[in-house]
Amino acid sequence: MDYEDILYEESDHVATITINRPKVYNAFRPRTCVELINAFLAAGWNDDIGAIVLTGAGNKAFCTGGDQSDHDGSYGGGETRGTIGMPVEELHTVIRDVPKPVIAKVRGYAIGGGNVLATLCDMTLAGESAILGQVGPKMGSVDPGFGTAYLARVVGEKKAREIWYMCRRYSAREALEMGLVNAVFPDDELDAGVASWCAELVERSPTAIAIAKKSFNADSDNIRGIGGLGMQALKLYYDTAESKEGVQALNEKRKPEFREAMK
Q1: Residue 231 near residue 89, CB atoms below 8 Å
Q2: Strands 123-127 and 102-106: what pairing?
Q3: Furthest-apart CA pair in the chain: how many Å?
Q4: Could you report the per-residue pLDDT of 167-187, keeping only the tens digit for each?
Q5: 61: left (phi over 0), alpha (psi -120 to 50) or beta
Q6: Dihedral angle of Cα 134, 162, 160, 104, to the nearest 10 degrees
Q7: What percent of the chain has pLDDT over 70?
Q8: What is the pLDDT of residues 36-56, one digit of tens each?
Q9: How many folded domains does the chain comprise?
Q10: Cα–Cα distances in angstroms (integers) from residue 221 to residues 12, 158, 181, 188, 216, in the given order
Q11: What is the separation, in whole angstroms, between the first and last Cα of the chain?
Q12: Domain harbouring 252, CATH code
């Protein structure tokens, strides 16, 4: 397909997928998700590819989740498919299901849905500028499924609850300490660091890695079902005044009044 929201490149047996919406901090809209799904499928089932890198354009953000300014549903072309009108479930699934290791290369903000993407990748390598965290309960949103239950597998139950309930931001070093990232590099060395890790990966047995990835996923694949139920609940939640208050408060640059909206 013709890409508008992402960049796709193959080099030295590595596919690099870049969310190319730097003006909105690489936030994704429905079309972005569809393009990402297409790119992951292209790279994931290409026998010449040994590793996939997911990153964001520019230095300010890896990804900041759903684009709150782009919710009118007028995209066409099957882009608004999915329980909540954006195929994030498909995107999460394809990152897990492609038989190649996926590395998140994070500079700047990995917030909200962007933090979920970084968590879902097989490994996450971050620059010193990386800032990770969740904003859902501040915005009238949540990620039920991999964004919550799988996060608990990664950082532990207590820390995952803190991340979601408190909506704090964490530095790259703090994320490394909690196990949310695998390694931290100075920003100007991140590209070389990721390239070095990928060079090692492409020397490994593709079939052995594919089997290992399937085995890792099998242990947590029940979360897919939890997420399916959660997305149905999320769709209903998005129709409430409480959820809409979060987006409205953001647009009006004020503190949301969720309890008032519930009345």
Answers
A1: yes
A2: parallel
A3: 59
A4: 999 999 999 999 999 999 999
A5: beta
A6: 40
A7: 96
A8: 999 999 999 999 999 999 999
A9: 1
A10: 31, 21, 21, 36, 9
A11: 46
A12: 3.90.226.10
